Hints:
- The chain is of the alpha/beta class.
- The chain folds into three domains: 86 residues, Winged helix-like DNA-binding domain superfamily/Winged helix DNA-binding domain (Arc Repressor Mutant, subunit A), CATH 1.10.10; 97 residues, D-Maltodextrin-Binding Protein, domain 2 (3-Layer(aba) Sandwich); 104 residues, Periplasmic binding protein-like II (D-Maltodextrin-Binding Protein, domain 2).
- 45% of the residues lie in helices and 19% in strands.
- It has eleven helices and twelve strands.
- It has a five-stranded mixed beta sheet, with helices on both faces. Strands 9-8-10-7-11 form a five-stranded mixed beta sheet. A two-stranded antiparallel sheet has the order 1-2.
- The two termini are 62 Å apart.
Amino acid sequence: MDKLLQQFLAIAEAGSMTAAAIALRVTQPTLTFNMRKLEDTLGVTLFVRSSQGMRLTPYGETLYENARLMQRLYDNMRSTIAEQRVRNERGISLGCGYSWWTLFIRDLVINYRREHPNAPVQVSLGNQLRCMDQLLSGDIALFVAHEIEGLSSSAGTEFIALSQIHNGFFVRKDHPLLGKPRTRAEIEAYPQVTSSPPESRHQRFFDVSRRRARVETVFDRTSFAFGSNSMAACVDYVRASDAVLQHTHLLAPAFNDWGLAALEQKETPREVLMGVYVLAERRREERVARLLDLVVSAGRAALPPLKA
């Protein structure tokens, strides 16, 4: 708010130039000069000086009413901006797949909300390539996912490993494959379901030599019968068919609650790393570093420990 109007309000409310000068911590001559300047600007007399102090003229009364309104608007604006700044400083934005949401991100978010009830929280659920897209676009600060094989170094990311996992195979609870260990060939003889259907726009994340093998671009040529980035849709499809859902083995308890059973595998499953991706250039930013510490701590508490 304009300094002259603030000084005018102080004089009007204090009732004297001396008292206002003390409250504002300025000299009385400074206030006298500034009020004459304000009166000259408006072309009217604002105060009548008497032995009892400073009394507002009708012009002064009009200015006082409007200046008080301006002061309230100014104070409200500053308060709103301050609250917004606090929310932004404490807010978090991250991405993850449904597995990691279920296993530990959900609890992390709920606990964070309890500690910071006014802070905005953004969680983007999707496969690791969608999350990578959002990370590079600046929409999220980091994301939790499997380690992405063949990822181009030009992406400029860092990967912080949290655990080793392997893929399990899940079917409806009366599926013909249940009852004994099965080979990979036996499992793949049935229709396959994925919650991470490939998108051709994500090919740019991979080294040229790995693109064709890593990302299928035409749906009809892929090895799965049904794909959806909705886990609920995948579960519904598997429960209603002979299809097999390939997904992180750690989600077996949740799938059991949803009516799916894990297949026994004859071959030893291939383990891969999972962890957190963050942009190398932003890792040491205070907000990003704080969120990274929070996610890493929650992940290591909830997931199997890394093997030596």
